[in-house]
Amino acid sequence: MPVKKSFQEINEKIKKGKAVVLTAEEVAAMGRDHSPAEVAEKVDVVTTATFGPMCSSGMFINTGHATPPIRMEKASLNGVPVFSGIAAVDLYIGATENHPEDPAYGGAHVIEELIAGKDVELVAHAKGTDCYPLKNIKTSINRSNINEMLMFNPRNAYQNYPVAVNTSDRIKYTYMGSLLPRLGNANYSTSGELSPLLNDPEMRTIGIGTRIFLGGTTGYISWYGTQFKTDAEVNEHGVPVSNAATLAVIGDASAMSPEYIKAAYYEKYGVSMFVGIGVPIPVLDEEMASRVMIRNEQITTRIIDYSDPDHPELGRTNYRELMTGEIEFRQKKIKTGSLSSIYKARKIADILKIQISEGSFLLTEPLEHFPMGKGLNSLEIRSQ
Q1: For residue 348, which of 231, 150, 213 has the smallest C-alpha distance?
Q2: What is the pLDDT of residue 372?
Q3: Distance in angstroms (rounded) separating the CA atoms of residues 28 and 295
Q4: Which tens digits make up the pLDDT trace of 67-114?
Q5: Distance from the CA of 10 to the CA of which of 63, 263, 268, 299 falls in 20 to 30 A?
Q6: Cβ proximity of 327 and 334 under 8 Å
Q7: What is the pLDDT averaged over residues 181-206?
Q8: Short-list 18, 112, 132, CA closest to 59
Q9: Apex 238 CA angle, 221 and 276, nearest 5
Q10: How far apart are CA 256 and CA 218, in angstroms?
Q11: Domain ranges of the chain
């Protein structure tokens, strides 16, 4: 009979310490010698992970009230502007917000410092009201003396992402790193067969409410991410070949670790933030087994020219080739570089594997699944 398992049945096995848990790399290797039916029979949970730059990230902060109280209307943390148009002492700091006088320092650095327990200078101004009379405040805040640090990232864990190259005659400084002229290098930013949404491309087990590893602690998928797209072309293995689905995630930043939340600066581009995410995938049946058995050579991605504003596709490659350190393209060997850390992704997948095996991390069935067949709109540019 075909194997059929439920979230509840797998959680019972986890509670009893009887669940078989493998990382995505381990099950991909297992898939070379075993059929989907055998994998579904033997394996209960597969842990996936990624650690890479995720610009669409940030943190809500509630500073607590001063005496007398203030309704912050303009605020900064260590000189980095923060959004204060929420409520009196609620702030949101975006990872890519730059310091006005120091482009190499920004919101991601402030977030990492707060997570690390360091003091951060808060400066805020207001017009003053009857109920919030204070007009100016300058003080230090840290993880211990504020009410909440709530990480909320609108777009993380892209399902797939293109390889960036540059065919022009000068270096290009991009969010995909520095791209050398005349196809001097090729940069990519996905953890391949370890990547969460490449192991469940139709998101059968991933949705609103899914419990995940986020930045060193437990987090949750709160919604589908911005620029979420599920009508992308797929290859013969059912994997999107371009940037497609994304995740919006949420978690308690005060419990996170700077090991898994890291600020970064890209020369002549700006600030970003590396985020560590791990997603457990239950092997419910043979079909899910066939998905989590995906190998790097079966994951296709596009080679995109970042020197052209239209980002045309020049060709395609796969993650096995990318991870060798070079690809052969247009009769030329091109060095490849990964913006995401496979080392950290493996570490996250292993941590999640241990937590599930020990019974300290249970799976959550999605409260709601994501929309399928969703495309993207483009912004119309009008001349003034």
Answers
A1: 213
A2: 87
A3: 6
A4: 999 999 999 999 999 999 999 999 999 999 999 999 999 999 999 999
A5: 299
A6: yes
A7: 97
A8: 112
A9: 30
A10: 9
A11: 7-55+152-357, 64-146
Residue 305: is its pLDDT beyond 70?
Answer: yes
- pLDDT > 80? residue 150: yes
Backbone torsions φ then ψ of 272, nearest 5 degrees: -140, 180
Ramachandran sector of residue 344 (left: φ over 0; alpha: ψ -120 to 50; beta: rest): alpha
Structure tokens at 316: 């395609």
| 3-state DSSP assignment of residue 39 | helix
For the cut 90, the answer to whether the pLDDT of residue 11 exceeds it is: yes
User: Catalytic residue among 131, 343, 378, 380, which?
Assistant: 131
Active site (annotated) includes residue 55 = no
Q: Angle at Cα 215 formed by Cα 209 and Cα 216, nearest 5°?
A: 100
Asked if residue 378 has pLDDT above 80, the reply is: no
Strand order in the sheet with 300-305: 313-318, 300-305, 163-165, 186-188, 333-338, 326-328
Distance CA 131, CA 152 (A): 29
Q: Which of 307, 318, 322 is nearest to 183 (CA)?
A: 307
* Per-residue model confidence (pLDDT) at position 384: 60
The pLDDT, as a whole number, for residue 97 is: 98
Give 24-77 pLDDT, tens digit per residue: 999 999 999 999 999 999 999 999 999 999 999 999 999 999 999 999 999 999
Say if residue 68 is preceded by a cis peptide, omega within 30 of 0: yes
Residue of 319, 155, 160 lying closest to 230 (CA atoms)? 160
* AA letter at 184: G
- Name the band, by pLDDT with cuts 50, 70 and 90, for residue 383: low
